[in-house]
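Example 250.
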Amino acid sequence: MSVTIKTKSELAIMREAGKITCGAIWYAGERLRAGMTTLEVDKLIGAFYAKYGCRSAFKGLYGFPANACISVNEEVIHGIPKQSRRLKEGDIVSIDTGAVYKGFCSDSCWTFPVGKISDDARALLETTEASLFEGIAQAKEGNRVGDISHAVEEYCSSRGYGIVRNYCGHGIGRKVHESPEIFNWGRAGHGPRLSVGMTICIEPMINAKGDDVRTLKDGWTVVTQSGSLSAHFEHCVAITPDGPVILTVQ
Ligand code: MG
Ligand code: MG
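Predicted structure in complex with magnesium ion:
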């Protein structure tokens, strides 16, 4: 993997890919209801992409079988949509997906509540989302990857939350996963330098309790070791002369 630098016209395509991805996530996220299956959620994502003439960048990636990773409650990432998994009131649901549009990829994730959730769950979502924006604020030309990592870690660990250590954000372009790796923990002032034209995915994966995670027997679903809730928020961001520009918004 290498770091790829995008031209202005390539960034414009990635902005479109990001817009579609954001649209798909919110189209599905706003329709979450108790009783719905995670496979039904995945079908909403697929239908949205089809409407915009593109496809999911996730389907088939490393053999993943669906349009989106849908991870519920203690599931951190890589949940496989299933007919047998029904959502219930009080669940939190991460919808992680990306579109391929005109040869370029996007990748974003948002964690949604199903109906009324506990105060603890609400605080976890708010903290994780806020930490994403702490990280994005560091995505500036001349800064280093560690500045992003440290900002996310500091925000979440100072509030008592667990940081998932062994999964990370990444560069993105014609491939979903490019260099550099962007961990949610690390030392400010260290790591690869950020330069104009880089596009990166920043994606805090934060646990209510403890850092540790494990993978279920399905070979995909990553859950918290403690069984506590986990949240995941991700944006794709371009490094520009004017500062960070979020690509995965409407
Ligand atoms: Mg993602
Ligand atoms: Mg990602």
